[in-house]
Amino acid sequence: MFEGFALEHVDVGEAVLRVRHGGAGPPLLLLHGHPRTHTTWHRVAPLLAGTHTVVCPDLRGYGQSSKPPTTPDHEPYSKRAMARDCVALMRTLGHERFAVAGHDRGAYVASRTALDHQESVEALVVMDAVPIADALDRCDAGFASAWWHWFFLGQTDKPAERVISADPEAWYRPDRARMGDENLADYLAAIHDPATVHAMCEDYRAGLGPDRAHDEADRAAGRRITCPVLFLWSVHDDMEDLYGDPLEIWRPWAADLRGGRIASGHHMAEDAPEELARAVSGFLAG
To answer: How far is CA 173 from CA 19, 89, 133, 233, in A?
Structure first.
């Protein structure tokens, strides 16, 4: 897995991130979603490494990256905080400007990086996510039924950690055959760590709090993503069921927006790595 890639832990100031990086060419940062670790990219990263220097971290709180102490407002797990990690990581590795691609929760980190650090991000790929403020604005019975975990993980009156950690594999139900042995082993180690489970819940608590507030402030100010944006969504996930054409939600946010469908379930990096790599590389090639 990740043959030819270096594996190290990088201190980015506010956190220490576990990261794999390899390849040659323009830098590309790949950000995983919940509850994955960076190993979810194990089939995609080698396909991109022939044309790009590919950097795959565990987000703060996830996998083997550090878990900073939280605060009552959950800001240490905001996407703004994670975006600061990303920029610091890439600068430490020698990349002042880079492309960033994120899936699921990683998509929120990627888009926040592009909004907050426009001088650093040359291109953005967002996968299977619309902006948090827009998702919550459109929250109806269908969304609440399909995405109820947002509110279960995000609330604090009856914390979710105890329920999840009682039987993590029953809660997350990993697709063992599809994930691959090494990716699965890394994932299982993460979800069986109560500190990681707590940090992942903090990610969702930040989503309902500071992340939503940051989106709303940007929207009110008319701030947009200035770099080219590619939005990809899984045909067999629920983006179209929830939103019809999800590109319409992204249009107000991006001056240069493109989009495409990937024939996969939600975890497209594991379900359709070749198709995903082609879409990303084609976009980045211009």
So the answer is: 25, 32, 28, 22
Instruction: Give CA–CA dist 99/242, Å, rounded.
Output: 28
- For residue 225, give the DSSP letter: B
**pLDDT value, residue 114:** 98
Question: Where is 213: in which H helix or E strand?
Answer: helix 212-221
Active site positions, annotated:
104, 266
DSSP state of 172: H
Phi-psi region of 65 (alpha: psi -120 to 50; beta: other; left: phi over 0): beta
Which stretches of the chain drop beneath a pLDDT of 70?
none
- pLDDT for position 177: 85
Measured in Å, how far apart are the chain's first and last C-alpha atoms? 29
Tokens describing residue 135? 């998702």
pLDDT at 3: 95
Q: Is 0.90 surpassed by the pTM of this model?
A: yes
Within 10 A of 30 (CB to CB), how many other CB atoms are there? Answer: 27
Kindly compute the dihedral angle of the four CA atoms of residues 133, 89, 227, 266, in this order, to the nearest 10 degrees. -50
- Structure-block tokens of residue 148: 């109820």
DSSP 187-205: HHHHHT-HHHHHHHHHHHH
| DSSP states along 89-148 | HHHHTT-SSEEEEEETHHHHHHHHHHHH-TTTEEEEEEES---HHHHHHT--HHHHHHST
Q: How many residues would you count in the chain?
A: 286
Q: Could you report the per-residue pLDDT of 149-208, keeping only the tens digit for each? A: 999 999 999 999 999 999 999 999 998 889 999 999 999 999 999 999 999 999 999 999
> How far apart, in whole angstroms, are the C-alpha atoms of residue 32 and residue 80?
16
Q: Which amino acid is at 148?
A: W
Residue holding tokens 């990740």?
2
